[in-house]
Design brief:
It is a single chain. The chain is α+β, with helices and mostly antiparallel strands. The chain has two domains: 4-230, Rossmann fold (3-Layer(aba) Sandwich), CATH 3.40.50; 243-353, OB fold (Dihydrolipoamide Acetyltransferase, E2P). Helix content is 23%, strand content 31%. It has helices at 48-56, 98-107, 113-127, 142-154, 173-190, 201-207, 225-230, 235-240, and strands spanning 4-11, 25-32, 37-41, 63-68, 71-72, 83-86, 161-165, 194-198, 210-215, 218-223, 247-250, 252-254, 257-260, 263-265, 278-282, 287-290, 294-303, 308-313, 319-324, 335-340, 346-349, 352-353. It has a six-stranded mixed sheet, with helices on both faces. It has a five-stranded antiparallel sheet with strand order 16-20-17-18-19, with no helix packed on it. The radius of gyration is 24 Å and the shape is globular. The two termini are 38 Å apart. Bound molecules: adenosine-5'-triphosphate. Its EC number is 3.6.3.20. It comes from Pseudoruegeria aquimaris. Keywords: ATP-binding, Cell membrane, Hydrolase, Membrane, Nucleotide-binding, Transport. Residues 4-241 form the ABC transporter domain. Belongs to the ABC transporter superfamily.
Length: 361
């Protein structure tokens, strides 16, 4: 396995790109540590596949370098990069048995039969497919086919990285959670560098130790699931992660404080910089209803049993959601007053986090 470095990477599909808007990847500097479990998360079109194809060697970047353990591989073709890939749709040979399918990547590289046998048995046991080893792949269900496809990606122990590209797309929703947690467990056992590409936050947060969030060809934040939830570096991350996403309120900056509709909103810490667009960010989980606070008319109430989501609209039209645990729920149309937990209330200047964390020097 290897540490993968992306240095000053930019890519445009245009022959003569002019401005940043012509780049599918704007500027990426990133280290993927040896043995790490990473997710590459972002909406459709943000550049995930472009980045994946650059790492695998299917695409040569317009600018920048890719290093595996410090060795420049930018101009190496895919077959010389020693990468395993698992795609959206299973890549297996229907006419072969499960055992033959799992053995194939090893056989292809001339690995000794005894080692192949042991490794196939080990991977089959991890994937819980041992009893299927002598079945023909053609007869397997789609999720078992995808499991075998994953097994083929994991079976070699000499690869630099295993990359998963939306691997759960074909899996039935009720089986997804099973395979998701299986993959996490596999990472812990195989200890390989893994990059998991997805637009699904649940998949990313379940699998990864570090999540790389992309938007419009840029990395907006790299962090643990907890960091992305607690201190989104950008309002985009706040919206994209969480359900419902973070509330973002337009505000004015006066005397070092943030004001929403003329009302001072206490923040976690000092504002470090203001911008042309100033906003307050607060997760619905840290909004409570009380006697006083920001008034809003209740627009929607969703009682989910273990909690309820109340969405209210302030007089200026800003929507604010609160996640409530127990207590009486307001009725639609009722006026409620909302309080924000100050230590969880962030400030964003032109989209970027610009308040000091509580306790920060
Ligand atoms: N072969 C191509 N030629 C021209 N433009 C492309 C090509 N492939 C991708 N793009 C553009 O580059 C940008 C990034 O696309 P990319 O496929 O990398 O995003 P993505 O995050 O993987 O999206 P998805 O999840 O839909 O696959 C998009 O604007 C897309 O239209």
């Amino acid at each position: 396995m290897a540490k993968i470095t992306l240095s000053q990477l930019r890519h445009s599909y245009m022959p003569a790109p002019k401005g940043p808007e012509d780049y599918a990847l704007k500027q990426i500097d990133l280290d993927w540590q040896d043995g790490g479990a990473y997710a590459l998360l972002g909406p459709s079109g943000c550049g995930k596949s472009t980045l994946l194809n650059i790492i695998s060697g299917l695409l040569v970047p317009s600018e920048g370098r890719i290093l595996f353990d410090g060795r420049d591989v930018t101009d190496l073709p895919p077959d010389q990069r020693n990468i395993a890939q698992v795609f959206q749709f299973p890549v297996i040979y229907d006419t072969m048995t499960v055992r033959e399918n799992l053995a194939f990547p090893l056989k292809n590289r001339g690995v000794a039969p005894a080692h192949i046998e042991a490794r196939v048995a080990e991977i089959a046991e991890m994937l819980e497919v041992t009893e299927m080893l002598d079945q023909r792949a053609a007869g397997l269900s789609p999720d078992n086919k995808q499991k075998i496809s994953m097994g083929r990606g994991l079976v070699r122990d000499d690869v630099n990285v295993v990359m998963f590209d939306e691997p759960l797309t074909v899996i039935d929703p009720h089986l997804k959670w099973k395979l998701r947690s299986k993959l996490k467990e596999l990472h812990q056992r195989v200890n390989a560098t893994m990059i998991y590409v997805t637009h699904d936050q649940t998949e990313a947060l379940t699998f990864a130790d570090q999540v790389v969030v992309m938007q419009l060809g840029e990395v907006v934040q790299i962090g643990t699931p907890v960091e992305l939830f607690e201190r989104p570096a950008h309002t985009f991350v706040g919206h994209f992660i969480g359900s419902p996403g973070m509330n973002v309120l337009p505000c004015e900056v006066r005397d070092g404080g943030a004001f929403f509709m003329g009302r001072n909103v206490p923040l976690e810490g000092s504002i470090t910089q203001s911008g042309t667009r100033n906003e307050i960010g607060i997760r619905p989980e840290f909004v409570t209803l009380s006697e006083s606070g920001i008034p809003g008319a209740v627009r929607k109430v969703a009682d989910l049993g273990h909690n309820a989501v109340v969405e209210a609209v302030a007089a200026d039209g800003t929507r604010i959601s609160a996640v409530l645990h127990g207590g009486d729920l307001p009725a639609q149309g009722e006026t409620v007053h909302m309080q924000f937990a100050p230590e969880q209330t962030r400030f964003y200047a032109d989209g970027w986090l610009a308040s000091e964390a509580r306790g920060a020097a």
